């Protein structure tokens, strides 16, 4: 999911996730309104810096707003730091500057993960706590926080598509590209879940590639719909897939459903005209707040996660209040089922 989000919004989900709310939702959904209080023992002089993607991206504007809110809510000195462009050298420069400022913790939520690894190694060697989000494949970090694991995200997407299809009919899966770790992990989990739970659904054995581009997704969807006019559903893993597929379905006038990973602003038109019933995603600002709380908890514990990072841990926000831990990866259950009814709650 990271690659998608990064190319899309800046963004980069995730998933595993890249590795690691409404009654109409296919599975447990979460709201993102709860604000957490600072841990009682927290010191107010911690310096926590989140490094994100381009500051012009709505996705990272959301992260910046929530980090600013967190600082006001808790008194913890947390800041958002993002590059003006997608050039990885800007991000690396930001990290090096923060190392020189001797921050206590770095939270990393970027698309250029490989490029920043050496700088993060330097940060850890300088005694700085490094926590990634949407970065389970990274190596130079102490912990990683994810809104959910890849398997669950794929299953959740299949539940949503099956609900719309009445649990029967032919469907196809679309990914951003055939080498995307997160997209293909979601797709594999979705297909496995379908085979176990929806025997009247049939996978068309073609995995479409949208290149994380709405126009390409539209063209690929149109091609497959012309080949299989009785197609009942398209599962989209790239954030642009539901948009492109919905436009193709509408243009051809076919009775085909689409569901998958998206964002409210990207899919606004097709959500509001009813072409697209729903999408799923997570609130990156909520993830950022929960990760800040994790940093404070570890810093309060002398910079060590021992005794703090454990199954069932509560990071203070809904969806992150009963986390699952697998090694250094911490998984919440913070997916959102986005529809026209809750559109205004997620301005990104």
Write down how many β-strands occur, each being a DSSP E stretch of 2 or more residues: 13
Give the CA-CA distance, first to last residue: 16 Å
Radius of gyration: 20 Å
Please list the strands of the largest sheet in the order they lie side by side. 2-1-3-4-5-12-11
> What is the percent of helical residues?
25-40%
Look at the structure and give the CATH class of the largest domain.
Alpha Beta
**What portion of the residues fall into strands of 2 or more residues?**
15-25%
**Unreliable sequence segments:** 1-24, 27-42
Number of helices: 10
Mean pLDDT: 89
Structure class = alpha/beta
SSE string, helix = H, strand = E?
Answer: HEHEHEHEEHEHEHEHEHEHEEE
The coarse silhouette is elongated
CATH architecture of the largest domain: 3-Layer(aba) Sandwich
Largest sheet: 7 strands, mixed
CATH H level, superfamily name of the largest domain = Response regulator
Count of domain modules? 2
CATH topology grouping of the largest domain: Rossmann fold
Structural notes for this entry:
The chain has helices spanning 2-8, 58-74, 88-100, 113-125, 150-165, 181-197, 214-227, 241-252, 268-272, 284-300, and strands at 47-51, 77-81, 105-108, 129-133, 143-146, 169-175, 201-209, 233-236, 257-260, 279-282, 324-326, 329-331, 335-338. With 348 residues, it is an alpha/beta fold. The chain folds into 2 domains: 2-148 and 283-334, Response regulator (Rossmann fold, 3-Layer(aba) Sandwich); 150-281, Response regulator (Rossmann fold, 3-Layer(aba) Sandwich). Strands 2-1-3-4-5-12-11 form a 7-stranded mixed beta sheet, with helices on both faces. It has a 4-stranded parallel beta sheet with strand order 7-6-8-9, sandwiched between helices. It has a two-stranded antiparallel ribbon with strand order 10-13.
């Amino acid at each position: 999911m990271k690659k998608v989000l990064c190319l899309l919004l800046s963004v980069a989900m995730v998933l595993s996730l890249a590795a690691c709310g409404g009654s109409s939702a296919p599975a447990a959904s979460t709201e993102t309104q709860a604000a957490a209080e600072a841990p009682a023992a927290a010191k107010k002089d911690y310096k926590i810096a989140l490094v994100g993607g381009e500051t012009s991206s709505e996705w990272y504007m959301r992260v910046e707003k929530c980090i600013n809110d967190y600082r006001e809510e808790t008194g913890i000195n947390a800041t958002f730091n993002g590059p003006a462009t997608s050039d990885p050298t800007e991000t690396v420069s930001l990290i090096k500057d923060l190392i020189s400022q001797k921050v206590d913790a770095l939270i990393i939520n970027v698309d250029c993960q490989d490029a920043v690894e050496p700088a993060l190694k330097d940060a850890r060697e300088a005694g700085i706590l490094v926590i990634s989000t949407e970065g389970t494949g990274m190596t130079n970090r102490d912990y990683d926080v994810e809104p959910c694991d890849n398997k669950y995200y794929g299953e959740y997407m299949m539940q949503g598509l099956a609900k719309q299809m009445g649990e029967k009919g032919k469907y196809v899966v679309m990914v951003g590209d055939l080498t995307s770790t997160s997209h293909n992990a979601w797709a594999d989990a979705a297909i496995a879940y379908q085979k176990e739970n929806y025997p009247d659904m049939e996978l068309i054995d073609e995995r479409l590639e949208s290149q994380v581009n709405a126009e390409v997704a539209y063209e690929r969807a149109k091609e497959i719909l012309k080949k299989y006019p009785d197609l009942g559903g398209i599962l989209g893993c790239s954030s642009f897939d539901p948009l492109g597929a919905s436009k193709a379905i509408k243009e051809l006038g076919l009775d085909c459903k689409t569901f998958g990973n998206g964002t409210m602003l990207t899919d606004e038109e097709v959500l509001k005209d009813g072409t697209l019933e729903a999408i799923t995603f997570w609130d990156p600002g909520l993830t950022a707040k929960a990760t800040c709380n994790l940093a404070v908890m570890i810093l309060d514990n002398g910079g060590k996660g021992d005794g703090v990072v454990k199954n069932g841990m509560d990071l203070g926000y809904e969806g992150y209040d009963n986390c699952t831990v697998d090694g250094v990866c911490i998984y919440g259950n913070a997916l959102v089922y986005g529809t026209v009814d809750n559109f205004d709650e997620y301005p990104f």
